[in-house]
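Note to self: keep these together.
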Amino acid sequence: MRYFPGKKKKAVTFSYDDGILQDKRFVEILNKYKLKATFNLNYGLLGGGQWEDRGHIIRRIDNHVVNDLYGGHEIACHSLTHPSLVELDEDRLDKELGLDRKGLEDLTGRVIKGMAYPFGTYNDLVIKNMKKNGIVYGRTVEDTRNFGLPVDFYRWHPTCHHNDKNIFSIIDDFLNKDSDDLDLLYIWGHSYEFDLDDNWDHFEKIAEALSGHDSVWYATNMAIYDYMNQID
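Structure:
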């Protein structure tokens, strides 16, 4: 019989994109409830980019705060400049993926091997180039609304977005499920969405509902990847 660390049968992970100022408040909530997340960053856009959405200015974080802000959490790739990767040839993919990984590793001193797909787009050429550049998994935006482990880590489909209309029913089903299977609840999004939707309390409720369960392993994406490849 397989287990997660600590002989736990359930795991929870989060994945959030773009490296923006709202991540500071988001990380504070994660840390308050002892949850773990993966943050997917565009190295080429740190420290300068911003855009407007529904009257809100969304600003990217500065390079010098990356290590402190994401201490205790995973940093992963999100491409150098956030294009739709399926529109790129192999040379451009090399730059978008290779330079993003190298830049983030040089900046943080960490080994970085994970990724979330910009705009959720990917194909066989993108995955081939990820392998070439030492990236071992890619998170999609294709919600499963179930708790299955990925069959293919390059097509790692999350359970749901944090704004899923059934999020609290999904959490209840996850916590109450009793089976011999390993179950993974994987929530994704962008922290600026809590400003756009004025619902930071929504995430606080999610965090509170998921925290403090002895049966749950709280892990980053990479920790789950590493562990599953160790026991399989």
